[in-house]
Design goal:
Blueprint lengths: L9 H14 L4 H15 L5 E7 L5 H9 L2 E8 L10 E4 L12 E7 L8 H11 E12 L5 H14 L13 H10 L3 E14 L2 H10 L16 H14 L7 E13 L18 H5 L13
Parallel strand pairs: 1-2, 1-4, 2-3, 4-5
Antiparallel strand pairs: 5-7, 6-7
Helix pairs in contact: 2-3, 5-8
């Protein structure tokens, strides 16, 4: 486990995810991410003998992997193996302390789970080490622009009612930061992109109910321990309805999903050319005259 700063209470996260399963999970974001992962994987022209789904809260990704025809053995690496479909191998695992040997896996995927890791750089390094040469890592994380409306409503309501702010929505990473982390972890050919989804709700309270059924309510260590005051909640609802309602009265909730992919280095992969090694000048390709440094172009 990481010995660094603890942003998230991962024990509480586990309890909240267990509660979500009991309530009946709101899985639309996970289902979307699983379908998108399947589309992205279909563009990869190879087969992966051993694939691990790391910490995805439902079996949506595992079903996609199994149906893709691109994987052999599919392993569910999750904190709690109870309730996992018996058609998958199951390994009790924590995202911050992976139980897999170096260079033992061909594919590692994860959907909407790694944003709650305290030591994400360390986890990415571990994933990189578990991959065989030319193995692939692909993941979807909740991005930093998610729930901007709820964040703004809480900030204004708590300032008015309680005279100060408390952490309510996690400060997730942005795409640029995640791209740098992939490079630091040693992945080759790293790619990062994001998509934004807007979900509409009848009320702010309906959104918060969905977050509870996602197991995605506040698990930050620095959260306030006392229950949310009724007056604060009512003010949140009023601000949200006033600032973020469409013409029909329904409220917008924004979600950002950031996609990461990278390969374990292998000699067969494309590499950038060395400076000065080009066989043809750009000026020749463009049919123009090359202007030496310091010379002014003709008018």
């Amino acid at each position: 486990m990481s010995l660094g700063p603890k942003l998230f209470d991962r024990r509480l996260l586990y309890v909240r995810q267990q509660r979500a399963r009991t309530l009946g999970p709101a899985s639309f974001l996970l289902d979307h991410a699983a379908a998108e992962l399947g589309e992205r994987l279909s563009a990869v022209l190879r087969r992966f003998d051993v694939a691990v789904d790391l910490a995805t809260p439902t079996d949506a990704v595992r079903r996609v992997l199994k149906a893709s025809g691109k994987t052999g053995t599919v392993v569910a690496a999750v904190t709690d193996v109870n309730g996992i479909d018996n058609s998958f191998l199951r390994v009790a695992s924590d995202e911050e302390a992976l139980p897999f040997a170096d260079a033992s896996l061909d594919l590692v995927v994860s959907a909407l789970a790694l944003q709650f890791v305290n030591d994400l750089p360390g986890t990415l390094i571990q994933i990189r080490r578990t991959l065989r040469p030319d193995g692939l890592f692909m993941a979807a994380l909740i991005g930093g622009d998610s729930l901007a409306e709820l964040r703004a409503a809480f900030a204004e309501a708590e300032s008015e009612v309680e005279g100060g702010l408390s952490p309510r929505v996690a400060p997730f990473a942005d795409a640029r930061e995640l791209g740098a982390l992939l490079q630091r972890a040693g992945f080759a050919l790293p790619v990062v992109d994001s998509e934004r989804l807007t979900v509409r709700y009848a009320s702010a309270r309906a959104l918060m109910r969905d977050l509870r059924r996602m197991g995605a309510t506040n698990v930050m260590h620095e959260r306030r321990r006392r229950p949310l005051r009724r007056a604060t909640l009512q003010r949140v609802e009023a601000i949200y309805a006033d600032r973020f309602a469409d013409a029909d009265g329904r409220l917008r909730a924004s979600f950002e999903i950031i996609w990461l992919s990278g390969w374990a280095p292998h000699e067969s992969q494309q590499k950038p050319l060395k400076p000065g090694s080009a066989a043809r000048r750009l000026a020749d390709a463009l049919g123009t005259r090359e202007i030496p440094a310091g010379e002014k172009p003709e008018r």
